[in-house]
Specification:
With 338 residues, the chain is an alpha/beta fold. It contains 13 helices and 14 strands.
Length: 338
């Protein structure tokens, strides 16, 4: 009796869930279809991206929902949006699918030879225009199988939503999810044209900035960029009075060259003008701490070869440029202006 009861209890004990087996049962095609719908915004565009019909995408997602026992999308006649469960599922499965795609790309690149494929690169507008764009020809010549799309945008980079592979950013990096490799220092230099200095003089300390006309830069966030200085070992920020404000750094630079006022700009923008005397430096002794120009990419254990060679090429080429302005040179420059 006891033996029979024991056998019965064993046979009737609930079977433990096996996550690996459950994952095998869940259709990978359904997960890919689901992610494509999220990325494209609707089933029809997802079908176009995957090279299948809208109905096939819908069936794959429906099968996935049945297997998971939950609704992933809220569908109306006008739009498709993620349910609360769908958002959670996307956040958890999307990185895994990305890694699978990356692994397949890596294997394909190893098998097929030289790095190939498409790169989507984002940069701040002025750095991309002045520094990156002129280097693309040399990179393409060395890597003819890699195509590049360069997006110039001063807004923060959303790697996932915007499909960005590599981003070049200015300033201090605070996003722990992103790997940021410092390419070169980012010196900020307060400048005036030689003509402006001759007519109005130059500020001798930070307080005297208020007596001068500033040219301001409006950030992508809508906020006007403050000027930053290092005074007595502490950071000090100034928002100058300005008759001119632009959201384009080239226009800020041109206004300073035209003697319309003074502005604080990155050294890579003004280095040549400082060396040839068109611009003079103001208050180099109060220059802020270096903020850095960074090349950024997602935290991936295995970078595709096309991304790796692009990062290495750009880092080497940018560091070889004469973009760093020494403080001693600025002080000599200022003395000549005085």
């Amino acid at each position: 009796m006891s033996t029979h009861s024991s056998a019965l209890s064993i046979s009737q004990s609930p079977k433990r869930a096996d996550s690996l087996a459950d994952s095998f049962a869940t259709s990978y095609a359904g997960v890919v279809a689901f992610i494509a719908v999220v990325a494209e915004g609707n089933f029809a565009k997802a079908g176009d991206r995957l090279g299948i019909g809208r109905s096939a995408v819908s069936r794959s997602v429906q099968k996935l929902e049945d297997q998971l026992g939950t609704r992933l999308f809220v569908r109306t006649t006008r739009n498709t949006s993620l349910s609360a469960e769908g958002k959670r599922f996307y956040e958890q499965c999307h990185p895994g699918v990305q890694r699978i795609v990356q692994a397949m790309d890596d294997m394909r690149e190893l098998r097929e030879g030289p790095p190939s494929g498409q790169l989507r690169v984002c940069s701040t507008v002025d750095f991309g225009r002045k520094i990156l764009a002129p280097l693309l020809g040399g990179f393409r010549e060395a890597n003819p199988n890699i195509s590049i799309e360069l997006v110039l945008d001063d807004s923060p980079t959303d790697f996932t939503t915007d499909g960005i592979d590599v981003s070049f950013r200015n300033g201090r990096m605070e996003d722990s999810r992103v790997i940021a490799r410092k390419v070169i220092p980012m010196q900020m230099v307060l400048c005036a044209s030689a003509d402006y200095a001759a007519k109005h003089g130059l500020p001798q300390n930070v307080d005297e900035i208020a007596d001068h006309r500033g040219v301001n830069f409006r950030l992508a966030s809508g906020r006007v960029s403050e000027w930053e200085f290092r005074v007595d070992g502490r950071s000090r920020k100034v928002l100058p009075n300005a008759m001119l404000t632009f959201n384009d750094e080239d226009l800020v630079l041109q206004s300073v060259l035209d003697a319309q006022g003074i502005a604080q700009m990155a050294a890579y923008q003004v280095g040549d003008h400082l060396r040839n005397g068109r611009l003079v430096a103001c208050l180099p002794q109060y220059a802020p701490e270096d903020r850095g120009h960074f090349v950024c990419f997602l935290s991936r254990q295995h970078l595709p070869a096309r991304i790796r060679v692009f990062i290495d090429y750009m880092t080497e080429q940018i560091r070889a440029m004469d973009l760093h302005v020494l403080h001693e040179d600025l002080q000599v420059n200022q003395a000549h202006a005085a």
